[in-house]
Specification:
Layout lengths: L11 H11 L4 H30 L7 H21 L11 H25 L8 H32 L5 E6 L2 H12 L3 E7 L9 E2 L4 E2 L3 H12 L4 E6 L7 H8 L5 E6 L3 H5 L2 E5 L2 E5 L7 H36 L5 E7 L5 E7 L23 H8 L7 H7 L3 E3 L6 H7 L15 E3 L14 H16 L3 H13 L9
């Protein structure tokens, strides 16, 4: 879809030129052509921006001796920064969003370096600020359009088999090789040959000493692998072949290719992990804390500022609601209930009282549609989410966050923890006043296991994909989305 939209941006002749430019038989060739193309485009866009500004605003053409070298320098800086940021690596696996962000980030860093260089050389006064802004706009537009074209062409080429990312030889059982060959094909990696595991021939492999004999069988096996000219060789070792893997990889090391070993029984575990240094050893880290220390600081700062501003702006509403609660029914204004917070720590959550009862702990019973325990005012408060506003105080105290998985009553959690696994992983971040599940209408009564499972799935998505931008999005959806106000009884 993205590629077809380019026909609106480029005439047919220009589109065919783009197709020819990016039609590389290998991914490496595609990377080289893309890098050269982006350098030329950025340089041309930089000079076009300076010419446009001078002609439209200053009514004259720019000095080529000044702005042509600057345009080439900008092109080299953007390409160099994009290369340093790894923007050309793993193109067959990266998402369009990440590919675009790399381009925009490279432009931002390159322009910052360009301005700093002009300042250090004391030539900033001779460079028009209007030209600078026009160049930035032209380069941004050009890079976005080019990357959209390149990405679309790459994905289409991989899907059609025209672009070959890498050549790989697979060694293992036929079933495992077939499965992994299909996986690799989706990213443009072509399997050029599959072999059975030669460690079955124990006469050729000394499994006890992990050494390889010089038999004709082993030498022939190595020659066959070498003849395919692979970029990578992947050994799919199951439990029966794992002992001989060290000897096999030693023999394969004679081939100038990357050698990989995948223990097939633990493939999913390895796929979810990453190799890290831990003290003086190396481990396979299969899970990590959802937020880094820097991310926790950013989120906490956002919570403090947001909760403080919210309490100040909403103070008249909070006072008015408190008065109406006292006039509507007997009882306290605020209701405190024990719920699970970060790392399952019990916290006392504040709410405006919306019921005639004050149930907590094991006596808790979830509100249902038409529940007679809910007061007349309470129905309005619950439907509009106003009953949750006192939790801004919980946010300031550090027990909660503005955005996060909604905390459940402790009795409610204990009901589902044995039925949904891993249920308590949703508590790896602080609970929130609003959350990703709630803005998608997954709130209110959870009278079936399926309803709670869907809520937990959305909560875990938030845990695994947190960003400050996502928090902003959820807050906006909480205010304006109708789904955030549904199923509230």
């Amino acid at each position: 879809m993205a590629y077809s939209s380019l026909h609106k941006l480029f005439p047919a002749s220009a589109q065919s030129n783009l197709d020819g430019w990016f039609a590389a038989s290998s991914l490496e060739g595609f990377r080289i052509r893309f890098g050269i193309g982006e350098f030329l485009l950025v340089s041309a866009a930089a000079y076009l921006g300076s010419a446009t500004y001078h002609r439209m605003v200053l009514l004259q053409w720019p000095d080529p001796q000044q702005y042509a070298p600057a345009a080439l320098l900008l092109g080299a800086m953007v390409s160099g920064v994009a290369l340093a940021l790894g923007g050309f690596n793993g193109l067959e696996r990266t998402s369009l969003h990440r590919f675009m962000c790399n381009g925009v980030g490279a432009i931002t860093v390159a322009f910052a370096l360009f301005v700093s260089l002009m300042f250090l050389l004391k030539v900033a006064d001779a460079y028009s600020r209007g030209t600078f802004l026009f160049q930035l706009v032209c380069i941004l537009a050009g890079v976005i359009a080019l990357r959209l074209a390149a990405y679309s062409r790459l994905q289409a080429g991989i899907a059609a088999g025209r672009i070959e990312a890498r050549r790989v030889v697979l060694i293992g059982d036929r079933e495992h090789c077939s499965e992994y060959s299909l996986r690799l094909r989706m990213t443009g990696i072509r399997t050029v040959r599959t072999f059975g595991f030669p460690a079955r021939h124990e006469s050729d492999f000394d499994l006890a000493n992990h050494s390889v004999g010089g038999s004709a069988y082993v030498r022939q096996f190595i020659r066959q692998c070498r003849s395919r000219n692979p970029d990578d060789i992947i050994v799919l070792a199951d439990e029966t072949h794992l002992r001989g893997t060290r000897a096999l990889t030693l023999a394969l090391s004679e081939i100038p290719a990357n050698i990989h070993v995948i223990p097939v029984e633990a493939a999913d575990l390895i796929g979810a992990g990453r190799i890290v240094e831990f003290g003086k050893t190396v481990t396979l880290q299969v899970a990590r804390r959802p937020l880094s220390q820097a991310e926790r600081f950013i989120k906490r700062s956002f919570d403090i500022v947001g909760a403080s501003v919210g309490l100040i702006l909403l103070a008249p509403l909070l006072v008015a609601v408190a008065i109406m609660i006292k006039l509507d029914s007997p009882g306290p204004v605020l209701f405190r209930q024990t719920r699970h917070g970060f790392n399952n720590k019990p916290i006392r959550v504040l709410k405006f009282r919306s019921m005639r009862v004050m149930e907590d702990g094991s006596s808790f019973k979830q509100a249902t549609k038409g529940d007679e325990r809910v007061t007349r005012l309470g129905r309005i408060l619950r439907r509009t989410n106003i009953d949750e506003l006192p939790q801004l105080c919980n946010v300031l105290l550090g027990d909660m966050s503005l955005v996060g998985p909604r905390p459940h009553a402790t009795a409610h959690n204990e009901m589902f923890e044995q039925l949904i696994w891993p249920f308590y992983r949703r508590h790896n971040v602080k609970p929130g006043i609003t959350g990703w599940a709630q803005v998608h209408g997954l709130r209110g009564e959870t009278d079936t296991l399926e309803k709670m499972q869907r809520r937990v799935e959305y909560d875990l998505y938030y845990v695994d994909n947190w960003s400050l931008l996502l928090d902003f999005k959820i807050i906006i959806m909480t205010i304006f989305s109708l789904a955030a106000y549904s199923n509230a009884y």
